[in-house]
Queue: 2 jobs
Job 1
Amino acid sequence: MSLLSLTDVHAHYGHSHILRGVSMGIEAGEVAALLGRNGAGKTTTVRSIAGTEPPEVRSGSIRFAGTDITEWPADDIAAGGIGVVPEGRRLFTELTVEENLELSKITRGRWNRVRRRVAGSGEPTMTIDELYDLFPRLEERKQQQSGTLSGGEQQMLSIARTLRLPDLQLLLLDEPTEGLAPQIVQTVSESIRRIADEGLTILLIEQNVREALSVADRGFVLDQGEIVYEGTADELEDEDLDEYLVV
Ligand code: ATP
């Protein structure tokens, strides 16, 4: 059984029918990539799964660790083990790096509200020290106001912050390398691989196929709200998918 499975998901924003029967399965322990051009529906897929700024899922189902979470609110999904690093980073820019990491721990009150649905300890997936081991650059800059960090450092902080959620099993990363300089892209990609090595399952949303396939085990190609191709990273490399992708 897949850790996450989407079955024939149709998602709408008002009159716009965006996802048109998306089915996909993410296996525990893998890094899967969701690829596709601008407007293909990648972010809509992330929002449908995580319940953040959700489109209306009118039919189909989303199951996580054996439970149907299609109708769950975002807080419950987060506490249940799915973390999202959204497009655009969304840090508390006035606060320092360390303050961002401290604040991101789920509060006891919020945990009490959601714990009716989820098992687990409520303790952060990673301590701040563990995150500094993963991202030494953040430790060097822990007292710096996060709004003054470089784009790559902000992206690392955004990822690190999400790892403060409790009992994470699945991390959804929405275009983590967008707008970053090539050298920083590589640093961020290496950290994603290390997070996967810690045992987290990852769904990586990317437009840049080469970058995604350097990290992912498997990929799905989304076009106009439909999965048009699914294969291993090697199969995707060999396939001519230029029509659907930015290469
Ligand atoms: P990008 O790489 O540009 O973020 P994407 O593949 O993530 O693209 P989505 O953001 O999922 O694509 O957008 C898919 C379609 O849904 C687009 O046509 C977009 O205009 C539309 N859309 C997204 N959000 C909304 C919204 N809140 N209301 C109405 N339409 C929306």
Note: The mean pLDDT is 89.
Job 2
Amino acid sequence: MEKSEKLKDQCAVVTGANSGIGKGVAFALSRAGAKVVVNYVVGETEASKVVQEIKAEGGEAMIAHADVSNEQQVQAMFTKAVKEYGTVDILVNNAGLQRDATIAEMTLEQWNKVIEVNLTGQFLCTREAVREFQRRGPVPERSSALGKIICMSSVHDIIPWATHANYAASKGGVLLFMKTAAQELAPQKIRVNGISPGAIKTPINTDAWSTKEAEESLLKLIPYKRVGVVEDIGKAATWLSSDDSDYVNGITIYVDGGMTCYPEFADGG
Ligand code: NAD
């Protein structure tokens, strides 16, 4: 397990950190020295387990309940984080979900739920983080930036995805929300960037990799010929959170083994 002090004394809020990528990011940021606020909406036991495990390896963490699409709950989560750790330096907008259906069969409820959590949730958390960065002011000995925000998107912010129109629309929205926030907030020294994972082994997509046949079929879409793991995303999130990426703003890192390189055309199309 690699450890560093790149995020020493900084507080990171990671949404949806009781599962999958969020959990992996929480561990990675902790191993770089950050105190981690492990957000969850359901699954308190799993969230507490993440906190216990972080503490067991010498880190600092706390759980914080909030539905990221609920304004009051998001505000209460940030109040709790600031009360406990003094401020927030890093936000990882990770929480997300799918409600898949064809366009003809998709209910308005399925559409709204995905947009509310995946897109509106990122706005609500970003707004509270920015307000806290502005309230706290610069602390140059901790970070060159006033604050750092990472928006978890998906390769489906640029690859259309039949039967997932709500999800693809939410992630396409995240891409331009992230870029607009980066443009608007850069003069205040707030850095906003995105991570777009390809196929990462987590509970959201178990069907796509849990059998040999499913994994072989998935690998046809991945030039690098391996399915990603949460540690791949944790490393990118740590870099984007640290001063190592201080001149990086408004970009998306596609952590996807080349999925966005049109593998269907590898033999000439
Ligand atoms: P996951 O289902 O394991 O984790 C999603 C997390 O979000 C869970 O902890 C869940 O409880 C939480 N969540 C859902 N609704 C919430 C709400 N209203 N408030 C707070 N938390 C909420 O899936 P994952 O693969 O770890 O997904 C994490 C992020 O990565 C998502 O934004 C997803 O779209 C994105 N992503 C994942 C993959 C992949 O291959 N796994 C690929 C591209 C993008």
Note: The mean pLDDT is 97.
